Structures are given as C-alpha cells and as structure tokens.
# Entry
Amino acid sequence: MNYHWDWLFFFQEADDGLMYYQWVLSGLGWTVAVSLTSLAIALLLGSAFGVLRTTPNRWLIAIGDTYVDVFRNIPLIVQLFLWFFVLPELVPRDIGLWMKQDLPYFVTAVIGLGLFTGARIAEQVKAGINSLSRGQRFAGLALGFTEWQTYRYVRLPMAYRIVLPALTSEAMNVYKNSAVTYSVGILELYFQYKQIIEKTSQVLEITIVITLAYFVVAFATNRLFAWIEQRSRVPGMIAGGQGGK
Amino acid sequence: MRKSLIALTLCLTAAGLAATAQAELTGTLQKIKDSGAITVGHRESSVPFSYLDATQKPVGYAMDLCAKVVAAVKNELKMPNLQVKYQAVTSQNRIPLMQNGTIDLECGSTTNSLARQQQVGFSVAYFITSVRMGVRKDSGIKDIGDLNGKPVVTTTGTTSDGLIKQNEKGKAINVKNLYGKDHADSFLMVESGRAAAFVMDDILIAGLIANAKNPGDFAIVGPSLRDEPYGVMVRKDDAPFKALVDKTLIGLMKSGEAEKLYTQWFLNPIPPRGVNLNFPMSPALKAAFATPTDKGVE
# Structure
C-alpha cells in the first residue's frame, strides 16, 4: 500500500492559525464536556424516573414507563434531530426563532443525549431497587421511615451499589454516543476527525489518534467507576448482590 | 465512532493484503490484465456526477465519462470481455480504497487538491466547481459583506469554512460558523432559518435547490470564493494508466462529446425524479475543456 505516512502533520498550521493537534484537543474538550454534562443530566433523570417506576402508585409507574419506552425505542440520532430541527417548528414562532438563533447548540445536544441516556439508567435503577427483598422496605417502614425515607436511607444506597457495574457501562457509552452530537453542530472529536481528514487526507494517522483518544476517556471512566465500586463496597456483602437474601 | 472503527479495520486489513499484492503489480493496467476485472469506485448521492438511480444502479456525468475510460482500457488491453465491477465509496474511504487496490478509478465529485496528491493521482479536470453562497431570496443577502454577524453553515468534513475569512480579510467581516452533518442537513439549516447562508460548491447547492419544495425561494449569490477542479482519481505515480485516462477525457473534450454529456446531465431532466438542475457551463469549465489541466488547488 503506497500510503504516505506523515505523523508530523499534527504540528502543521491549519487555516485558522491553530495546529492540527490543537484541533484534536479542542474536539476532545468538547467531547468530555458534552459527555459529562449529559451523564449528570442522565443520572438525575434516570434516578428520578427509576424510583417512580418502583413506587406503589400506578400513575407514577405509568409516567416512568412512558419515559423509558419513548426514549429507549427511538434512535439517538433521530432524537437529536427531533430536538434540533422539529421542536423549533412546533413551538410559537418567537420561541422557535430564539431556539434556532440564540440557544447554544451545546444545550440541545446535552439535553438530547441526557434524556436518551437517562432512560437507560432509569431501567437500571429500577432493576437495582427491585432486586432488593421487600423486607427491606417493610423494615424501613416498621422503623417509622416514610416511603421516601426508605428510598433515601435503605433502598437506594444498596440499589446504586448493585447496579454500579451497569452504570459503568453507561458512563462509558456516553462518550461513544457523544460522537453523534456532531450531527447537531457540536465541534467535538468526531467532527474534528472528519474535518482533519478532509483538510489533510492523512486518514490513517488521524484515525489511530482519534480511536486512542476515545479509548482513553472511556477507559479512564471505567477505572474511576471501578475505584468508586471498591470504595463504596459494604463490608460483609459480596458486591451487594446478596442483598435480596 | 462506529464509522471511524470500520475505517480503521478496513485500513489495517488492507495494509496486510497490500503487502502481499504489491510485489507482482507494476501498475493498474497490469493489475486489471491479471485479474481480468476493473473496479470503478462511485458515489451514492453526488448528483449529477455519480449517484444511484431508482434501480440502485450508479449513473451520472462522471460515470458516463468513466464508461468511456473503461472502453479505452478494454481496447488498450485487447480484452473486450473485461469484467467491470462497481464499488460504492464515501468521501472518507475513497482514498484508502484507492491505495489498497479495492478500486482502480474513482468517478465522483473529488476535488483535485495538493494535499490529496500526496496520496493519490488525478486526471485532468472534467468539472470546475465554484464555492458560493446558497441563500433564501427573502434574506436580502447579495454579497459576502451582507454576512457580517450572521450565522453561516457549511458541511462537516469540507473545506469551505475558512474561505469567507480568507477571501474577505479586507472587509473585516465576522460570521458565526455552523456545521451540518451532510449537505441536506446544511441546506435544511438555511431553509429553516437557522443559518443565513450555506457556503458550498455551487453545483451541490443547485442540486439541493432543484429538489427543494419551493426552488423559487432560494438563490445562489456572491462571487466565487474559490474554484475547485474535479478529477477522476487514480493511483499515485501510475503514469501509464493516468495517461490513458487523460487521453480519453481530453479526446471527449476536444470532440465535443463531453459537452454533450454535460448538457444531458446539467441542463435536462435527470433520474430518478426528472429534476432539471438548469446549471449552464461556467466560463471556468469552458476554459478547462479548451485547455485541459490536472493542476490541483491548495
């Protein structure tokens, strides 16, 4: 293969005066910013809706189920397009214009990615709570806790520990899914990847670098969660999975 | 991410294959002769250069030109029954697929640039595109100066975004750069009012306008920010094959056949929907037909 290798192109000046490696770093910065913000939104939403789905109230359950069904069954890229292109046309004209011209694209992207990821986390939080024995709730109520207090002090602390491995996967997925936000104008890593290919045609070098960059952020997240898992382990319980016995 | 991984896998596999294949190949013509087949790379939606029609067959202006090249190859190698294969390519994989021998010539809408000449070779230009602005007529935008402070969209992975500033340093205008995922997306940004102008190859804008709900709402305005030649992509440093491609294309330009093909694809209804692009030959293209050149742009 007569490929013209040139690793030094990363230190060439691009047409905006920055060097190409700086494009990669700026893309990486946006990828991390979008991912962490989306993950924060997703953890909040996922926990709230996950809890709703385990309450005794069937209306609350229906609300939680609807959220999960809607956002888990539509492809991420379609969801982003719905927020980006469709929603501004459905709301009153002035709000639509504001969304199109003044609202930073970052906000649209993290709301879209956050809602998508939140639905998946809601499913996991629900599974974690349901894996606990009913006796834990009864014990809590017998001690005089309110329903909410049984969640706050008894059930959620155990449920989160149980689903931590699944949450780890989700946190790593957010980085990979964030590549889709280039489609709504976020100048993140995948966007810079495409731009740099077009400007330099050094496809292999940039592909290798971008692949490593995604790997590093996802793997760092994996290690961080493994550390949290270790630190939050309850002595005498193996991975919390025995909680139901 | 998924796309980049596929590309990586392809490239790595290809690198392994090419190492074994390279020893016995002295050029594309030899390879075609040995394998008894020629593979033409084509695009799926570069209207009207190279795209799929209603029956998923690749058609277009560049495809017609390449059909003549293939005929010349058959003639040169005295292989009338040469097998012709078609392989769809994208703007991301066309260069690696050319380098690893998957395709023998690429007939699409590839700009002949100096950066790309580091990797591949190009025939003489068969089309000259000008980077201009697509706007809504009711926006009142007529020139680059009117863009000051306005959002301007280009497509991700293209080279148009730097052009406005480069071209208008003197006027000191400042625009907000937006990026669409593909050309349809970028056009939608103009259509829906997110962006004031779409800076892109004029022929691509013309194709999008021709297919819009109300083509009369849009116009292509302003001076050319840059002219870019499209060429047939061949392998780098393969002089005998490039000479054959060039000879064929130059022959078509001199005989007037190329102009006939131009009229067929740019000034008449084309498949699949019978839309007419109404895109007359630019002076730059007329010059390129009169004096063919394979010079690349920066």
Notes: The radius of gyration of chain B is 20 Å. The longest strand of chain B covers residues 218-235. Chain B touches chain A at residues 1-5, 7-8, 11, 14-15, 18-19, 22, 91-92, 95-96, 99-101, 113, 115-116, 118-119, 151, 156-159, 162, 166, 178-181, 185, 188, 192-194, 235-237 (CB under 8 Å). Chain B has two domains: 28-128+228-290, 130-225.
